[in-house]
Design goal:
alpha/beta
Length: 720
């Protein structure tokens, strides 16, 4: 009886076990099927299906095939490929790569079809995928994503910090080698077409065509260089060489400077011609700057984004935006910012208005606008440079202070001078760190004279952040300190630079179209409209101006004040910093009648004469405006003469009397007119005073910084 009961229990256990195994297998197969569907949905089919007009490619994810030719005559492809042993780590790595690719494709799909917040998060994640960044041998992952990019997503990805240029396809037919004569002929036809589209209304283009190509065409078909190669004609008066081609690039850039003409370049098919020119002059930085300015002028018309994308200019602009030469990087970044419709739908940066920071998309909210305007004959990349160290004005560095001769250098002699210099610096810095932590250091460019409204700062502690950056500033000199220094020291700001042409004499050749706006009043209306287009007036603003730029700022604010301040520019102006602004005129305009007849001074120079009624009236209206709006005024004045001309004749452009507006803080600095706006380092008083004002008007509150993993988890659930 007990044996039968035992057998019965055994039977029940076996039956139960079989049922459990069968049901478990079914459940496992069901889970595998569900997982397969989930993984399959990770890559949407509508994303993987490329447009029919684009070429189809097969990418091989195996570095062993990189040396196998496409048309190699072999029956077995594997026979020419070395065998590879597969380990568990290799299998796991391959699975991880596959998962990373799937995530990248899903992020791209979300960036293209999600809402604005989801798009931004997905683009940041896509740009920061370490797996894609670390690939060095195989780039098909980037190329595959590049083929799936549309124009709007591409421009958003291009504006990501440290965007990888492999995300963007090369221009069409980039491999074709164009002959010089054929290229010049293409550019010539483009210029003729542009002249036709503009209805012969641009005198500069007409003059250029008549001067450079007056003898280059016969019956509209045969050119002189063709006849010369056949021995049928003499060499043309204008030589068809790279110098002529460079002149054509300058003509195209000048033609694009006018908004009504920049559209014509795209309509005439000029984007592909500009790409050919970029390929020819890829190593010529000056020509690349002209091409970047041309594309930047075209970028004001965002409706041409698709044509610019198809011509391959997005990847080129990304490459240029990371160039160390700011003459190239700033116009390229401005073009990308103008084309980014999602971010700059109502904000554009017209010609001569440069975005200096942020050059890329930023997660921080802008709290303050800082606008820089240069003076007569100045420029963004000329006026706002870091001042070169001069032996006459050298400031003693506490780290480099040394009493007597360095004994170590004396003993060893001339050998290993760089090593000895670094060693001596480290020893003196270590000694200073022990003794000088509690010291306060007087700032460079210490004022010689001040008024009763001044409040510093005049000192900084040795262990301050600016002091620690000072040595780096002296070693790596900046070409534009507003662009490089201010964003590091004051976050949450937008830095804008304004460029405008100015001349000393009317003998200087001018474009008839540009030359119509030369007076202070005309410039005020022109640049006020451009700054409004760039979004000035939306948030608090601080103006930083040198010399004549201060007069232009005063004129713009007074004109807006008279019109009722409808755009809130006066209301949102928090401060103005004047660097040697001639409120009562400048001695540069003091010329006798005989001298004026010879030099023929420009309108700008004539308006700057001392005690000019127009300047005095402008300043009086400016003071009346300040009674209504509370604006902080800081003024710096030069006290040294500037050495002008090759003979080094000393000349003081602006006297302290003229530089003092009679309101706000006033400082006299022992610098000349050209150096008054160029701090030598971060602990220059000229910079620290501006820095203190900016920090006072910015109320930062740090946003919580999330790790890439947390950002990934914060994405919507439909990603998974």
């Amino acid at each position: 009886m007990g044996l039968q009961t035992y057998k019965k229990y055994i039977y029940y256990l076996k039956s139960t076990g079989i049922c459990i195994v069968v049901m478990g297998s079914c459940w496992l197969m069901y889970q595998l099927r569900q997982m397969s569907q989930i993984l399959g949905s990770t890559v949407p089919t509508n994303v993987l299906n490329l447009e029919q007009t684009r070429a189809q490619y097969i990418y091989i994810d195996d570095p062993r095939f990189k040396d196998v030719l496409m048309f190699r005559k072999t029956k077995n492809l594997q026979s020419s490929v070395p065998n590879q042993t597969f380990s568990i780590s290799h299998i796991i790595l391959k699975w991880w790569k596959s998962l990373s690719r799937n995530v990248a494709y899903k992020l791209l799909h979300l960036a293209q079809h999600g809402d604005q917040t989801e798009q931004l998060k997905a683009l940041y994640m896509l740009n920061s995928l370490q797996y894609l960044r670390e690939l060095k041998i195989i780039d098909w992952h980037y190329q595959h994503i590049a083929q799936m990019l549309d124009a709007k997503t591409a421009i958003c990805l291009a504006r990501m910090p440290n965007a990888d240029k492999r995300f963007f396809l090369k221009p069409p037919y980039y491999h074709i080698q164009h002959k010089l004569y054929d290229t010049i002929e293409q550019v010539h036809k483009l210029l003729l077409h542009l002249n036709t589209l503009s209805q012969n209304t641009h005198p500069c283009l007409i003059h250029f065509l008549n001067k450079k190509f007056r003898d280059s065409q016969r019956d509209g078909l045969i050119f002189e260089h063709d006849l010369t190669s056949l021995g049928m004609a003499a060499s043309p008066a204008v030589i068809w060489d790279q110098e002529l081609l460079q002149s054509c690039v300058q003509a195209l850039c000048h033609h694009s400077c006018h908004e009504q003409y920049s559209r014509d370049i795209v309509d005439a098919g000029g984007l592909s011609v500009l790409m050919i020119l970029k390929k020819i002059f890829n190593n010529n930085i000056n020509i690349c700057v002209l091409l970047a300015k041309t594309i930047s002028n075209i970028s004001l018309h965002s409706e041409y984004l698709e044509q610019i994308f198809q011509a391959g200019w997005i990847g080129t602009l990304v490459e240029w935006s990371h160039n160390p030469d700011i003459r190239l990087s700033v116009p390229a970044s401005r073009a990308l910012a103008n084309l980014d419709v999602n971010e700059s739908e109502h904000v554009k940066y017209p010609r001569r208005i440069y975005l200096l920071h942020p050059l890329h998309k930023s997660k921080t909210n802008t709290k303050l606008d800082v606008v820089f305007l240069h003076g007569l004959l100045g420029g963004i990349f000329i006026t706002w440079r870091q001042r070169d160290d001069s032996p006459a004005y050298a400031v003693v560095d506490p780290y480099m202070a040394n009493n007597g001769t360095d004994e170590v250098s004396t003993m060893i002699g001339e050998q290993s001078q760089d090593f000895l210099r670094d060693l001596a610096y480290d020893l003196r810095k270590r000694e200073w760190d022990k003794l000088g932590q509690d010291f306060e250091i007087i700032l460079d460019d210490f004022p010689q004279n001040i008024n009763e409204n001044t409040c510093g700062p005049y000192f900084c502690s040795e262990n301050s952040v600016s002091m620690k950056k000072c040595e780096r500033d002296r070693r790596y000199r900046t070409q534009c300190w507003p662009k490089d220094w201010l964003p590091e020291d004051v976050p949450y700001i937008r830095v804008i630079g304004v460029n405008y042409d100015s001349n000393l004499s009317m003998w200087t050749p001018l474009c008839p179209i540009d030359g119509m706006k030369t007076t202070l009043s005309e410039r005020s209306g022109e640049y006020l409209e451009k700054l409004l287009t760039a979004g000035i007036g939306i948030r608090p603003t601080i103006w930083v101006c040198h010399s004549m730029g201060g007069l232009l700022v005063k004129k713009m604010l007074v004109d807006e004040w008279k019109n009722g301040d409808k755009k809130n520019i006066c209301k949102n102006t928090r401060g103005i910093i004047f660097y040697s602004t001639p409120h009562r005129g400048s001695r540069v305009a003091v010329l006798k009648h005989t001298t004026q007849m010879l030099l023929w001074p420009s309108v700008e120079v004539q308006e700057l004469r001392e005690e000019s009624p127009h300047l005095l009236k402008l300043h009086e209206e400016f003071l009346d405006m300040l009674k209504q709006f509370r604006i902080e005024i800081i003024s710096f004045s030069e006290t040294k003469s500037t050495l002008v001309t090759a003979l080094k004749v000393p000349f003081q452009f602006v006297s302290p009397k003229s530089a003092d507006p009679g309101i706000g803080e006033f400082y006299e600095i022992a610098q000349d007119h050209l150096s008054i706006c160029k701090p030598a380092s971060r602990h220059s008083f000229l910079y620290q005073k501006l820095l203190s004002i900016l920090k006072r008007h910015v109320t930062p509150h740090e946003n919580e910084k999330l790790s890439p993993i947390m950002e990934f988890l914060c994405l919507p659930s439909k990603l998974f």
